[in-house]
User: Fold this.
Amino acid sequence: MILPDKTTAMETAINKISDGASVMLGGFGVPGTPFAMIRELVRQGLKDLTIIKNDANETGMGVDHLLANGQVAKLITTHIGLNPRAIAMLNAGEIEVEFCAQGILAERIRAGGAGLKAIVTDIAMDTELAHGKPCVEIDGVRGLLETALRADVALVHAERADVFGNLGYVATARNFNPMMSMAADMVIAEAETVLALGELPPDHVHTPGPFVDFVVELGDLGEEYAVVRR
Amino acid sequence: MIARAAREIAPGMVVNLGIGLPTKVVDYLAPDFPVCLHTENGLTGIGPTLGSDKADRNLIDAGGAYVSTIPGSAFFDSATSFALVRSGRLDLTMLGAFEVAQNGDLANWKIPGKFSPGAGGGIELAQKAHRVVVLSTHTDRKGNPKLLTSCNLPLTAKSCVDRIFTDMAVMDITSEGFALCEIASGVPLKDVISATGAPLALPAGEIPVF
Assistant:
């Protein structure tokens, strides 16, 4: 038996996304953000996207290009404090922003990826983030019902992949990538290095290949992946 | 103030230092001090901050500063990171604040219509760390009190703050409200009282100076 090869040209993979799609983007700040695929989303000009990402990157990077290009209808996120454009667009009503507690965003995505419908938590119970969410009682303690989150597409960044889509992450570039790569109907992974079958040791796989639909090998990493000089 | 706050950290603790002022606390810990620093983007065992010439592009803290590992460090995903927080493994967190109320309510994520950065991991840190310490200026940029009878801004978490360090004083939240513990060197007591937007209980006897 041999595992199938899922390597694809980036243009072809991104071309499978439709206007109005919900798109999960890995990354926390720079590490783990799929900058090259975001560039391709901009180049192909997809519209009315719902972007699900921990943050909105910074001016001139990643999500900021999508915002500047008017491609984002809604942002589901935890923190946009480093992106003045995102805050200005929120204030002007040009985008909808749904804030979520960071670990709850991770758990909602994990639940979506695990085939669950919701989680119950006491996080954010006494804040405006609880408004409109059903309350349930478990063992006499009240909790919020937070719905599981899935997306049409997840775009994730891996340090290494094999052609079957087994993925490995590095350092703090792991963050949301493992959960997101389980929680979308179509998962496209960009990888800095794509290895032949057998070259990625099974114990070093963080995301098993069956979760991944397409593997895109990155050429030279652009400036966005580099250390940010402040 | 930062040096004084660093003394809150006891040997053996697992500690998360929030974005902003709290991050600077690490500069006041001795290199051989036994503590495990956690950053919610997926690292325990945070090592020294690195300049951009030595930085690893994949290794940052939650505030975006380039950090390093130390012997015993671990990397993990965001779900695991907050499992650690919510399950009670965090002994102490130090957070910034827009407002703190006398019952310990904390607001630090949203100024409606103006500046809404979002709470990031702050809600879980404030709600679930065993001890929550706020590091903040005593007043905002216009001189308005940040310590109030009740918060005006949307809350991050209710009744979560244990202690507050400001440029003027150290205060505890007690069942009676703000209680002055220590005062900054050279700051008159009347200035602390007038800069505080809620009653301030004073300690019996001489007020310790930091």
About this structure: The helical segments of chain B are 2-6, 78-86, 122-128, 189-194. Chain B touches chain A through 46 residues (CB under 8 Å).
